[in-house]
Design brief:
The complex is a heterodimer of chains A (169) and B (191). Chain A has 169 residues and is of the alpha/beta class. In chain A, 48% of the residues lie in helices and 18% in strands. The radius of gyration of chain A is 14 Å and the shape is globular. Helices cover 40% and strands 18% of the residues of chain B. In chain B, helix 1 (3-13) packs across helix 2 and helix 1 (3-13) packs parallel to helix 7 (135-147). The chains are: A alpha/beta (169), B alpha/beta (191). Chains A and B meet through strand 2, helix 3, helix 5 and helix 7 of A and helix 3, helix 5 and helix 8 of B.
Chain lengths: 169, 191
């Protein structure tokens, strides 16, 4: 299993995050299958990204720290869940977003939201960090989650093809 | 059946069990009829009421009640599939079904034109699904839902009546109060 995935999952545990909701993605699968195999976590497969956010928000509201995994295309599905649920209630959720549309992308349909995800996060005032190197995963993810809870805000943690190799055509 | 009367009826059977309420009149009326720390009021996030309730149900052993609406649930029918997949025994979903989007001009919703939400829930592996149209029927099934394992899915047909005034809820304060009812007060920064 890749070290970046192991480090993300270990950091979730160290942050008392035990509810993970997601919509599948081939690269994120390397992390979510580790989550699924560990009885510490409850992994919930949602039908759509905004639903994943709703479930994670409910978990947080009931005192259980939660995280969401999605692909950048799915980030486009969930803007109102962010704008009218997470931000007004100040629900701190780390979003792990696999950014498509970067180096090695083969699918033109993945490019606009892959490139647009970070500018959209900026417009909404949501801090985000981009992982391109395995060595930075532990410190950046740990720091991003600390910021997430301290500021009671969503934080975007963007995964890239440079980190995990991307999806092959 | 009027939603205000039906909400009062449900509250009369609830102690400290958490409630998640749908945006708009459902949230407003719950606040007017029985504001409590165990109410999570949504003011936006249309379609996510029962998804939020599922997240609460997966994080507590208490019975959790979702007060959803037909127009909102139609926006996120996939969550019934997720509830059917997760099978939370402690989740009770009540859908106030007035067969319209009342807040936007009373346009008929899909439940007015043939969509059967109970049937959708059954086909999503939620066999304890039912439809009620009187307070007596609602009372009977809600008592059973509180006393036995679910997930439960109850479509409650309601009249279109003037809602109570908009409630003065601060979402941030609501989340804080609701969460602390589970965790107790924070003991460290950022908790």
């Amino acid at each position: 299993m890749p070290i970046w995935a192991e480090r993300i999952v270990q950091t979730l545990k160290e942050s008392d995050i035990s509810l993970v909701t997601y919509v599948p993605d081939i690269n994120i699968h390397q992390a979510t299958q580790l989550v699924n195999a560990d009885p510490y976590f409850h992994l919930v497969s949602a039908s759509r990204e905004e639903e994943a956010i709703g479930i994670a928000a409910g978990g947080y509201a009931a005192g259980r720290n939660s995280a969401v995994f999605m692909q950048s295309s799915g980030f486009g599905n969930c803007l109102n869940a962010i704008g009218s649920l997470c931000l007004p209630h100040r629900i701190p959720l780390p979003f792990f977003i696999n950014l498509r549309g970067g180096v090695g992308e083969f699918n033109i349909a993945q490019v606009p939201l892959g490139r647009g995800t970070k500018p959209i996060l900026d417009v909404l005032g949501i801090p985000h960090f981009t992982l391109t190197n395995e060595d930075e995963v532990e410190s950046v993810v740990k720091g991003a989650i600390k910021l997430c809870y301290a500021s009671r805000s969503i934080v975007g943690i963007c995964l890239t093809a440079q980190l995990h190799g991307g999806k092959r055509a | 059946m009027r939603r205000q009367d039906a909400t009062k009826l449900l509250l009369s059977y609830l102690g400290e069990q958490p409630i998640v309420s749908n945006l708009g009149p459902t949230t407003d009326e719950l606040w007017h009829l029985g504001d409590r720390s165990r109410n999570f009021y949504t003011y936006g996030g249309m379609g996510l009421c029962s998804s939020i309730a599922l997240g609460v149900a997966l994080s507590t052993n208490e019975k959790v009640v979702s007060l959803d609406g037909d127009g909102s649930l139609l926006m996120n029918l996939g969550t019934l599939g997720t509830i059917g997949r997760e099978q939370p025994a402690n989740l009770v979903v009540v859908v106030w079904d007035n067969e319209q989007w009342s807040q936007t001009g009373h346009q008929p919703s899909h439940t007015a034109t043939g969509t059967d939400l109970e049937g959708v829930a059954r086909s999503c592996n939620i066999p304890k699904s039912t439809t009620v149209s009187t307070e007596e029927e609602l009372e009977t099934v809600f008592k059973e839902a509180l006393a036995s394992d679910g997930p439960w899915f109850i479509v409650a047909k309601i009249e279109d009546v003037e809602p109570l005034p908009v409630s003065p809820i601060e979402p941030e304060v609501n989340l804080h109060t609701f969460r602390q009812s589970f965790t107790g007060p924070p003991v460290r920064l950022g908790q």
